[in-house]
Design brief:
By secondary structure, the protein is mainly alpha-helical. The chain is built from twelve helices and ten strands. The chain is globular.
Length: 339
């Protein structure tokens, strides 16, 4: 195993990014020396990561935080707890997948029941009149936030398929065929919007942000792999190299490398080892080295014109450690392992 993978795992344990209640902060701000607010989405990602890292106590702590955050009376999973102003379709999907990952390890019915309740709320509360799914609702009223076509996260789109994987995971856990129908529905919608998603903006930085979102679409295809993965990988890889001198995101490198490896494992897209080697090399450059345990082992979020941005990001770190672990000798055996 690469030393950067080992150190990334230790960063999750020693950095304080997970608070005593189990919640995980959105990022650590290096220049301000403090964590940002805790997010349920990031805690969901962390729960899945702790399972991959074989850290069951940290995983259980994250899962307990999420089940406590779920407002059963209102049927809502807030984006942040203090105050609970919004709920996001995408975030709910990530939380469901995190809870199911911990449930697979522990067998706790409480976790599966909570995951199912959140998955049902995604299908019920976010459904728009046109059949798409609203990205954001206000709380407590669950009114849709006005959509913004210039911001991918404020519009329905192909990236939502990653959240739709929650329904596929719920089907695998419960056998309820209704969840397959929900996944297939959002998969069809994703195909309808994916073709126009890239580059999607004149600003190179915004294009890189959209690469991150488009890779969510490619990840969301993995439950039912298809030839579109081949074209999608090539589109992202070309834009990544073109835009790297201006702006790079570590999660984009990690997501692209993971998709390559998973697509190769299911024999949909033969692995381009030269391209993968380049992406792994660029990704390794984002691994932070410091005497400060809040920084050391984590992965920087981004780099602008060669200068680091001051964010050590738990999702970037999670994606990176999984991508590098697989690249250095692991073999993707099961799509459900994808963080």
């Amino acid at each position: 195993m690469l030393p950067q993978v080992w150190r990334a795992g230790h960063w999750f344990q020693r950095s304080g990014i997970q608070n005593p209640e189990g919640g995980v902060a959105r990022y650590y701000r290096v220049d301000l020396e403090r964590n940002h607010a805790v997010s349920t989405e990031i805690t969901g990602y962390a729960a899945s990561t702790f399972i991959v890292l074989n850290m069951p106590e940290s995983a259980r702590s994250a899962a307990r935080f999420l089940t406590a955050a779920w407002n059963a009376a209102a049927g809502a999973m807030p984006f942040e707890i203090d105050p609970p102003q919004f709920t996001y379709f995408f975030d709910c999907g990530i939380v469901v997948r995190g809870l199911i990952a911990v449930w697979r390890r522990t067998g706790s019915d409480d976790l599966l029941n909570c995951a199912r309740a959140i998955g049902d709320s995604m299908a019920r509360d976010f459904l728009a009149a046109d059949g798409s799914f609203h990205p954001v609702l206000t709380l407590p009223g669950k009114c849709p936030v006005e959509r913004d076509p210039a911001r991918w996260s404020r519009s329905p789109g192909c990236y939502q398929l990653k959240a739709g994987m929650a329904w596929w995971d719920l089907f695998a856990a419960t056998g309820d065929i209704g969840y397959v129908r929900l996944y297939e529905r959002i998969r069809k919608q994703a195909f309808a919007t994916a073709g126009d998603f890239l580059p999607g903006h004149a600003d190179p930085r915004k294009v890189v942000d959209r690469l991150h979102a488009y890779l969510y679409f490619l990840e969301g295809l993995l439950p039912t792999p298809c030839a579109e993965l081949v074209e999608g990988i090539a589109r992202v890889a070309g834009l990544v190299r073109k835009l790297a001198p201006e702006f790079e995101r570590s999660d984009v490198y990690a997501q692209l490398l993971r998709v390559r490896l998973f697509a190769d494992a299911v024999r949909i897209a033969r692995l381009d080892r030269t391209a993968a080697q380049w992406e792994a090399g660029r990704l390794l450059e984002f691994a932070a080295v410091s005497d400060d345990p809040r920084v050391d082992g984590g992965f920087y979020f981004g780099r602008t014109a060669g200068r680091w941005e001051p964010y050590i990001n738990p999702v970037s770190t999670a994606f990176a450690l999984q991508a590098l672990a697989l690249w250095s000798g692991g073999i993707p055996e099961d799509r459900s392992q994808l963080i």
